[in-house]
Amino acid sequence: MAASARWNHVWVGSETGILKGVNLVRKQAVNFTEAAGRPRREEEVSALCWADAAESQILIGCANGTVKSFSTEEGKFLRSRCCPGGEGTFRGLAKHDGCLVTCVESGILRVWPEDSSEHIKELSVGPSVCRMRQDPDRPHIMATGGKENSLKVWDLQTSSREPVFRAKNVRNDWLNLRVPIWDQDIQFLSGSQKIVTCTGHRQVRVYDPASPQRRPVLETTYGEYPLMAMTLTPGGNSVVVGNTHGQLAEIDLRQGRLVCCLKGLAGSVRGLQCHPTQPILASCGLDRVLRVHRLREPRGLEHKVYLKSRLNCLLLSGRDNWEDEPRDPAPVPYEETETDELWDSLVPVVAGAKRKQRPLGAQPGGKKQQALGGPSPVSSL
Amino acid sequence: MARSGEAGGGGEDRRGAKRKAPAESPGEAPEDGATESGAPEQPQPRPAAFPPGFSISEIKNKQRRHFMFVRWKQQQRKEKLAAKKKLKKEREALGDKAPPKPVPKTIENQRVYDETIVDPNDEEVAYDEATDEFASHFNRQTSPKILITTSDRPRGRTVRFCEQLSTVIPNSHVYYRRGLALKRIIPQCISRDFTDLIVINEDRKIPNGLVLSHLPHGPTAHFRMSSVRLRKEIKRKGKEPTQHSPEVILNNFTTRLGHSIGRMFASLFPHDPQFIGRQVATFHNQRDYIFFRFHRYLFKSEKKVGIQELGPRFTLKLRSLQKGTFDSKYGEYEWVHKVCFRISEILVDQSVLKS
Q1: Are strands A121-124 and A108-112 parallel, antiparallel or unpaired?
Q2: Rounded distance, CA B202 to CA B209, Å?
Q3: Domain locations in chain B?
Q4: Least CB-CB distance to B336: which of A18, A38, A246?
Q5: Burial class, B336, CB count within 10 angstroms (exposed 0-12 / middle 13-18 / buried 19+)
Q6: ipTM of the complex model
Q7: Neighbours of B238 (CB within 10 A)
Q8: Could you say which of A16, A228, A287 has the minimum Cβ distance to residue B334?
Q9: Is the pTM here over 0.90, yes or no?
Q10: What class is the B123-336 domain?
Q11: Rg (CA), chain A
Q12: Are B172 and B163 contacting, i.e. CB atoms less than 8 angstroms apart?
C-alpha cells in the first residue's frame, strides 16, 4: 500500500469524500480516506492541487471548509486545517510562497501561512465564483471568474484590493441584448499572458491582458450545453473542453476551430486534465467512471476505470514514461517456465503460473519433440 | 437445333449462362436436365462452367435471376441437411466418446460483464445510497406526494391515462397543465410539499414520454414511453384498483444506474412493509426496457398464485438522468443515452441498466 501510493497516475476526488488513486498500468484503484475510515458526504472533495512541484503531496479542499494534505509517498493523510470564511465550497486551491491560497464560492480569497490558523491576506473577488486558478509561470498571479462575475486577474504581491486585469463583457448580441457571463473554467496559456476561459453559455474565449483590449481577443462556441471543464493540450495551441452532456472537444486557439471530439463519457464532465508532454487526457464526471483518452496517433479511449462514486475533480501526475513502469511481477516467471520443460513438473508448486499455462498446452509438447532429437521414437518415424 | 433457337432469345429458356457467355460450351445444360421438361437436347453432360467471378446478381433478367437464386438456395439447403445428417451419424457412431454438443450462442450468453453491477456487500455504494436524495424516503422521514401533469393541451387518451395512473399511485394528484413552465411549477410544488413530479408528454394524441422529477433537489429522469394500454384495452382484467397501497417489485435493476432508477421508482410508493390489499406494481427491466404492470394477486396455495391484471400498462426506456430538478438546458446530466453506446451494445450486447 505504501509503495503503491507513489505509483498512482491519477488522483480523483469524489462526492463521498474519498480520494482515489488510480494506477493505469496495473489497472488498480485504491481508496484513501482519513483515519476514521468512513466516507462522509460533508467532506465532499471539491478541489485538488499539488502541494509542490515534485508531486509528493496533495492538498484536498473539502466541502466543510477543511483543507487536508495527503502524502503520495506514504499514502496517508498528514494534516487537516480548517479554513473558514465565506459560504460555499472551495473553488480553487493553490500554494504560493509557502502559503495556502483558497477561494470559496462566495468570493472570499484568503492566503493562509503554513502554521497559523489566521489568514494574512483577504480579497473579495465577487459573488458566485466558479473557478480560481493560479498561473503556473508566475505563482503570485491568480485568476477568478464565475456566474455574472467576469474574469479578474489578481496579484498577491501587491497590497491593492483591485484586480490587475478586469475583463469587459462582449458587445450586445444581434438582438441588442446583453450577453450573460458565466465563466466556468480558466486556464493560463504558458509563454504569454493570455488567459482562456470556457463559459456556461457554450463559449470559449481568449483574453490578453497585455493588449489594451479588455474584451476577448478570440471567441468561439461549441455545442449546445454548458461547458464545465477545460484543459490545455501539450503544444499550447489548443484546449480540450467538456460539457454537461459528456461531450469532449479539442478546440484550436489559433483559428478557433474544432479539431476533434472524443467519445465515451455519458455524464457531465467535472474534471479534465491533460499530461504536460504526452497527448494523454484524463476525464472524470458524474457517470462515476475515470477515462483516459489519447489525443493523437491514434485518437481514442485508452483506459476506463469504474470508480463507484460521482467524481468531482482529478489530478494527473506529470511523470513521463508510464509504459515503462513494471507491471505485476506475475508474468515475468511465466515466460521462463514456457521454455524449460523441466518446470512443467513443478507446475503444482507455482500455483499462479499454472492457470496461465493451460492455453499453451500444445506448445510445450511440440518443443518436447524438437528437444529430444534423433533417438526419440516419435521423431525417427 | 433448339439450342440455336435459344441463342436467338427465347424468353422461356432460363439458361442465362448460355446467352451471357456464348463462347462457353453449354456447360449449364446438365443441371437443367432435371428441370427441363422439353426435348432432351444436350448430349454431353458437363459440370457447370460459369466464368470465374460470376455471381447470380449480375444476371439482368429478373425471372432468370430469381430462378437461379431459388435453385442455389435449394442446393445450399440440401448441403446443409446432408452435413447435419452426417454429423448426427458420426455422433451415434461414436456413442459415449462423442465430443459434447456446442452451446448455442444467445444474446444472454454473449454479454460482456458490466463492471458497474452493484455488489450487495459494497460499502461505498451502500454509503452512497444511504446518503443520496432518496434516503429520507427510505428512512420514512417523508411520505410521497405526487403531482401528475401532462404537456400542454392533452387529448383524451392521455387524460384517461393520467387518471388511471393516479389510481395506481397512492397520494397522487392530477392537475391540468395550462401552458405553465415547469421551472415555475417546481418551486410551487416544493412549497406545497410535493415529493415527486410526473409529466406525461403527448405527441399526436398518444402519450410518448415521461419526465419523473424528485422534488426537493432530486434527480430527474426522462423516459420514452411506448405501448401504453389503458384499462379497457386489457383483456381478462379485474375490477378497479382499490385505495390500498400496492406492493412494488423491481426486477433486474442491477447496475449502479439501475439502482438509482429503481430507487426513484420505489420512492413513488409509500415505504411500508405491512401490505394491506393484494395489489402489486411491477417494474421489470429487461435489456434496458422497463415494463410496468399492475396486478392483483391471490395465493391459492403455498406455491400457486393467481394474478389478475388491473390498471394501465406501459413500457419505458431511459433517455437521460439529470442531477437536480428539471433543467434540460443548464442542468448536469448523470447519464445520457448516446447512439455510439448503442452501436457498441449491438456488437457486444451489453445493457446499461441490467446485467
Answers
A1: antiparallel
A2: 7
A3: 123-336
A4: A246
A5: buried
A6: 0.76
A7: 16
A8: A287
A9: no
A10: alpha beta
A11: 26
A12: no
